[in-house]
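User: Run a structure prediction on this.
Assistant: Running it now.
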Amino acid sequence: MKFARLGDPGHEIPVVLDGDRHLDLRPLTSDIDGDFLAGDPVGRTAAAIAAGELAELDGAGALRIGAPIARPSAVVCIGMNYAAHAAESGSAPPPVPVVFLKTPNTVVGPNDTVTIPRGSEKTDWEVELGIVIGRRASYLDSPADAAAHIAGFVTANDLSERTFQLEVSGGQWSKGKCAPGFNPTGPWLVTPDEVDAQALRLRSHVNGEPRQDSSTADMIFPIDHIVWHLSQFLTLEPGDLVLTGTPQGVALSGRFPYLAPGDVVDIEIEGLGAQRQEFVAWEAAR
């Protein structure tokens, strides 16, 4: 299934895609949040569709697309998870997953305008597969247990300010990852039965020019290992978002300029949908 949230920020309506129709999920849930995702969302939604309980949402095509999940309790990220990206960043592939955090208020709609942070000269793009947690995960016994805790997958852009991340970070990456709007997410939450998430093509373009083009098959640490590994150090709650790393082709490589006001970034993951952001200057946004 594909779940989405449509409408103005803070007033999104949860829907499920049924062919070319957007069916209103409000008879089942007020939002696509942890409670909904932990309560058999596919089974309940399928039953409601079969019973004719979900009406088509009028005017859905004209509504803003929000992030397909309500604000998560945590956004946990894996760095350097593609060998070629590690190389272009000047690092060896890590022997264990590199973990950092983004704040939940970075999660915005897939096509929302993004403000370049005040003082930024190195705002960068990163197409990433996102994992949405569906069941509480703590101290999983093995990577084989991870699949039962995954509600679905999303397209995400792990935007980064490289000076903040690497030069004035104090050794912690999150300082360059947490500007408002620095995690465009969606357009859909796609359930695991719909895609082979470990074999999806990821691409990014800036102003129509190709930047990244890779596959989730090239991850150093695969999806199941990531969820298992994280569960040894923290508890993942339903509705939480885990970003799994980006492939080569970012501005940090030195091969491309960093983002500037007026630039447009297109992000796409096969089967999970595409997104587009226009970048604006901090002063103009104020």
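The longest strand covers residues 150-157.
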